[in-house]
Amino acid sequence: MHLNFPYPCIIILASIFSLFYLFSSYQPSMQYSVNFEESILDDQINSTFPITFYHNAYVDYRFTPPRLRIFSLNQCIKSDKNFLLVDIFYEGVSEPTQVKVFGEPLEGACPSTYGPAKPCFYVAHTFFTDLIRTGGMTKVLIHMGSRKVTLSVKEINKRFEKGITLCLQPVYYYSQWQNIVLYIEAWRAQGATRFIVFYHSSTKDTKKVLDYYRGLGIIEIRSWPSFGSLPLEIADKHPKIDDSVFIFSYFLAMNICILDIKTTIGSIADFDEVMVPINGTMLDYATREMTGTNVGALSFGNNYVAMEPTIYSSDFSGVSKPIFISKGGPSKYIFNASVIDLAQVHWAKSFTDSSKKSKGGDGALLHMRYGFDPSKEKTLNKPFRYFPDNQKEHIRNMQDTANKIFNGSVPTFNSNFIDTLNDCVKQINKRGNTCRSTGGMCKKEMDKVNEWVYDRTERIFLSGA
């Protein structure tokens, strides 16, 4: 059969075929890399956006499929629109895989709904996406047009090592070394085997205590220095990061910390907070409650306590019988480290397994808040104690430990340091509509009263260039 096409139709068809071939065979540069500012996509976070990243990205194998997780401090975004353009590199694969990664604020709202945090410009965020390809990831490259950031990669798996890991929110201008001794020894008696301390600054005496326990292999110190600066091209267009982030961004630190837990149970508790069950150890109690059940976290009611004599006299004998103050406060919790997804300060925000729930625990949070004078407070009798057994032996051990750390010359407590910090926070609060950014806003006042041991590690936070 003979087809009779006019000559112009043949030319048009040939042109269409050529154009089709050209576009189908063309691989745009943004498939694997973005080299020019004009390649920015709609709603992509670009080089002018104020953002800095924690230096590690995480591959979280607790999820099915595994999830890539990136942590940052940045101005608020539209969670359903703004995204990072990310190249994922794998060992033995020449070309990276490129993905769009969307994010959300760790607290749940941006700006924060909490008064002192609401004015803060930089808010902790997490960006995440499910992964099709797994294993052998070597690095992550974030494209923001002409600005790029490379992150190293850590893998997160389910936890099988029996024990409790404590996450310490950023330690800053810390002087109450006595708290640390009680905290570590009490939590160890409750079954804790590992402590992760995010460290910014402290007195020399406090650092000596931390270094002692680190030398025993009990504490791991994570650097939490200044958040650094934005690239020069945009730095003067936005607030300094240290001056406009809420209390050293503890939301960011604690959610990074829970990914570093290797034990079955974890918790986020300050140096003045110890959770105890009504009977036995916390490890045994939590293990029973969370094994083979839908319990993902156990919450414990706050109990403010004081001691006579105070431990700030370096006499730990008052620990044997804490004085309970008749004042309420927010609870704290422990969690199954294999299923915790995102953490809030006082509750588990989400779990990797949607069937997991939080439950009230049979025990108490012992919260030794600085400044309580039991002679001026209404007190209560309660059965809870820091140690599950052998109170005298534990107290003697704490006393001996303090003497050992300081070679028999135990330093006296100087209240001026914590008083100065509290006064600075009060002044910030008086200004109104001001971010409680103690890192940048209190540094000048704190440096006047002491020679602090700062963490000055570089490249913990990366803004790109």
What does this structure look like?
The model is unreliable at 1-38 (pLDDT under 50). This protein has 465 residues and is α+β, with helices and mostly antiparallel strands. Strand 9 (161-171), helix 2 (177-189) and strand 10 form a beta-alpha-beta unit. Helix 2 (177-189) packs parallel to helix 3. The strands form five sheets. A seven-stranded mixed beta barrel has the order 2-3-6-5-4-7-8. Strands 12-10-9-13-18-15-21 form a seven-stranded mixed sheet. The chain is built from ten helices and 25 strands. It folds into three domains: 40-156, Immunoglobulin-like; 161-406, Alpha-Beta Complex (Spore Coat Polysaccharide Biosynthesis Protein SpsA, Chain A); 415-452, no CATH class. One of its GO terms (molecular function) is glycosyltransferase activity. Belongs to the glycosyltransferase 92 family. Keywords: Glycosyltransferase, Membrane, Transferase, Transmembrane, Transmembrane helix. Its EC number is 2.4.1.-. Its main location: membrane.
